[in-house]
Amino acid sequence: MSWFSKWQAAAAVLLSTSLSPAFADIPASERAVLQALYTSTNGANWVAKTGWETPGSTVCTGNGPGAWFGITCGANDGTNDHIVAIRLPDNKLSGPLPALAGLTELRGFIAFSTNGDGSSTLTSLPPDLASLTSLRNFSVAGNGPGLTGTIPSLSALTNLETFRVNFNGLTGSLPSLSGLTNLTIFLAQNNQLSGTIPDLTGLKLTSFMVGNNRLTGSPPTAPATLVANESSLCTNPLSKPYADSPAWNTATGSTPWWRACDTASVASTTPVPTLSEWALLLLGGLLAAVVALRRNGRA
């Protein structure tokens, strides 16, 4: 081989190396999670599903938006890229969420339905939610009463910043939020949660909404970081006498903060007459009127 031919061969190798990606696609374990998510939530009926319908296609081509709809890639380890976020809001996901722990770098999972309009109807939280230690933002709000189950311990999710599970059918108690020093938004209103409201000491919460549940006891001290009108405690059958709290008044936008709770309590304990009771009341009124007329006639 002449020196020129050797130079051409070397140049070809160098060129092919420089044009090849610096990483392979996502690990097989992460691809398996995506396939399970698509299958479990009836992906064939999703509004947008580019890439998901071709399981063997490339998911990531570098940091940033992936080739598959709703996927964000990043956290390259020198060999593989990784899934760092899945965003599928208002995309008609239905059914139970699968395990997600195979997504070791997952920081965001978003699958809410706007204003609880039912465009997605998930029926469960991920069974391994408590082990998603890289998670920062989680939202399955607005999927409706069909999304049941309990909120697991969040104590290992120390990176968690926002947690939205409002407008669903969750039961059980609120988890401890102690140690979640990065948490700023916690929304769990409009479920069927019971038990007491956890201690909020040391948290940086700006919004804390737990109204329209079945919570009891007394509310904890309000964090100083709460933003005005961005929190809710009522309606819930909280313990009386209610304690005055200017901080909760500001945070809930209600003075006193317990006004809606008290209104709900009065409404729930005041029986509404049945149709037969209304009839008896009306008959009693008529009889009283007849008696009064007769007395007036005699006079």
Topology:
Blueprint: H1 3-19, H2 28-40, E1 64-65, E2 71-74, E3 82-87, E4 94-95, E5 108-110, E6 121-122, E7 137-139, E8 162-164, E9 185-187, E10 194-196, E11 207-209, E12 214-216, E13 231-232, H3 246-252, H4 259-269, H5 275-298
Parallel strand pairs: 3-5, 4-6, 5-7, 7-8, 8-9, 9-11, 10-12, 11-13
Antiparallel strand pairs: 1-2, 2-3
Shape designation: elongated
Radius of gyration: 29 Å
CATH architecture: Alpha-Beta Horseshoe
Identify the CATH class: Alpha Beta
Strand content: 5-15%
Briefly note the CATH topology name: Leucine-rich repeat, LRR (right-handed beta-alpha superhelix)
Mean pLDDT: 85
Number of helical segments with 4 or more residues:
5
Order of helical and strand elements: HHEEEEEEEEEEEEEHHH
Describe the largest sheet. 9 strands, mixed
Question: Count the strands?
Answer: 13
Q: Percent of residues in helical segments?
A: 10-25%
The poorly predicted ranges are 3-23, 265-281
In CATH, the homologous superfamily goes by the name: Ribonuclease Inhibitor
How many domains?
A: 1
Helix/strand-derived category reads alpha/beta
Whole-Å distance between the termini?
138 Å
Spatial strand arrangement across the major sheet: 1-2-3-5-7-8-9-11-13
Descriptive report:
The model is unreliable at 3-23 and 265-281 (pLDDT under 50). The radius of gyration is 29 Å and the shape is elongated. It contains five helices and 13 strands. The protein has helices at 3-19, 28-40, 246-252, 259-269, 275-298, and strands at 64-65, 71-74, 82-87, 94-95, 108-110, 121-122, 137-139, 162-164, 185-187, 194-196, 207-209, 214-216, 231-232. It is α/β, with parallel strands linked by helices and 299 residues long. Helices cover 24% and strands 13% of the residues. A nine-stranded mixed sheet has the order 1-2-3-5-7-8-9-11-13. Strands 4-6 form a two-stranded parallel sheet. It has one domain: Ribonuclease Inhibitor (Leucine-rich repeat, LRR (right-handed beta-alpha superhelix)), CATH 3.80.10.10.
